[in-house]
Amino acid sequence: MLSLKQSLSYSVLAAAVALAGCSSKTKLDDQANSGTGTAAYDASGQGQSSISGVDLSISPIEGEGPVNVAHTIYFDFDSYSVKPEYQATLQKHADFMRANRNITVTLEGHTDERGGREYNLALGQRRAEAVRQTLDLLGVPASQLEAISYGKEKPKATGFSEEAFSQNRRVEIRYNK
Predict the structure, then answer these.
(1) pTM above 0.85?
(2) Key word NAD present in the record (predicted)?
(3) Each residue's pLDDT tens digit, 112-139
């Protein structure tokens, strides 16, 4: 049986996913801002606690986030809607970040290589912002989160297949050291 806190967290996450889904059909402007920012933080965490069975202690390599939790959120083609299948993953990251308030995270938005540079930078930014908004709704303070876009500049996979494209449509959650 879920506790009231878990039930409320899942309700907030479900609402965030639903809201993000409503806006996923919005076409991005090809003339979107082509600028991108980067951040470098010097932060380390010292957490040793657990919420609903999630290990909130820092992983063996300092600053890498919760142990045994995926750090990549994948997206459908031309979409920045966070899929429901990532609810549990983002909940675990949110629990970890709330328990370790001195940790900061960079949410790096990426796209596949189809589309122009400006379009892909805008889409990558919207993907990173969608993950940031979901974490925000789960109680992570804005001061711990930064959303940036690399567009198609840092592919995870090479090639011109749907498999390669799908691996590049992502947001990577990077814990800053």
Answers:
(1) no
(2) no
(3) 999 999 999 999 999 999 999 999 999 9
